[in-house]
Amino acid sequence: MSGFDLSLLEHDNLGSTIYQKLCEALMRGVFKPNDRLKIRDLAERLGTSVTPVRDAILRLVQDQALVLRSPRDIRVPMLTRAAYLEIRDIRVNLEGLAAARAAERATPAQIDQLEALLTHNEEAMAVGNTALATELNQIFHFRLAEIADMPVLGDILRRLWLQMGPLIADVYGGAGRTMIDHHYPLMDAIRRHDGPAAARAIQDDIQLASGPILERIDAEHLEIQPVTLAS
Questions:
Q1: 3-class SS string, the chain
Q2: Model confidence over 132-190: pLDDT tens digits?
Q3: CB contact at 8 A, 118 and 185
Q4: What's the Rg (C-alpha) of the chain?
Q5: Which residues of 99-113 are buried (b: 16+ CB within 10 A; e: fewer)?
Q6: How far apart are the first and last CA of the chain?
Q7: pTM check: above 0.90
Q8: Which residues of 46-80 are buried (b: 16+ CB within 10 A; e: fewer)?
Q9: Beta carbons of 98 and 205 less than 8 angstroms apart
């Protein structure tokens, strides 16, 4: 979890604070599929007791962001192909809506913020800082919902990214330009305040990224296939 601040937390509303912090870590790809989370280790890093960490973990299991194999084996799940495709199709529609509305509403200052995120993402990729590039990518996508002023849509996206974040982070470094190229036509559309073009650009971005993500899911599936002996 290098680069992510799991610093000492205030004790007021501690369980919710820990839950939010772990949500951010999942969405930004701090944890990868199949990573095992140890409650005691997390409690030590967070500077708290195990009880609020356990409560937060159980909430994330309910969110389907974590899977509880046993009380001592808590994992970040690898999405199935069907689950990923369902989430992808939902994202295509919802993030397309957010991008269209953001293009119509974006102020010059907000456009500058998006351009800065894209520039910093490029810089992170250029030096091989995949963790930072992944984080900036997630912030970029969420900023569109904020600019669109659609908080309900933003909450739905957070739940989807809880499940998607680890998988996106797992493939981000190896996917090359696939994960960022369509952010440029998106920015062009936003500068023109062209909502339909912005929607198409973000939808193309999500669809194109599905290639390496599906390859990763399929590779995982092949790795766990049981070996059968011929009779």
A1: CCCCCCCCCCCCCHHHHHHHHHHHHHHCCCCCCCCEECHHHHHHHHCCCHHHHHHHHHHHHHCCCCEEEECCEEECCCCCHHHHHHHHHHHHHHHHHHHHHHHHHCCHHHHHHHHHHHHHHHHHHHCCCHHHHHHHHHHHHHHHHHHHCCHHHHHHHHHHHHHHHHHHHHHHCCCHHHHCCCHHHHHHHHHCCCHHHHHHHHHHHHHHHHHHHHHHHHHHHHHCCCCCCCC
A2: 999 999 999 999 999 999 999 999 999 999 999 999 989 988 877 888 899 999 999 99
A3: no
A4: 19
A5: bbbbbeebeeebbeb
A6: 47
A7: no
A8: bebebebbbebbebbeeeebbeeeeeeebebbbbe
A9: no
Report which residue type is found at 51: T
Q: Where residue 70 falls among pLDDT bands split at 50, 70, 90? A: confident
What is the reported pLDDT for 174? Answer: 83
**48 token code pair:** 């708290």
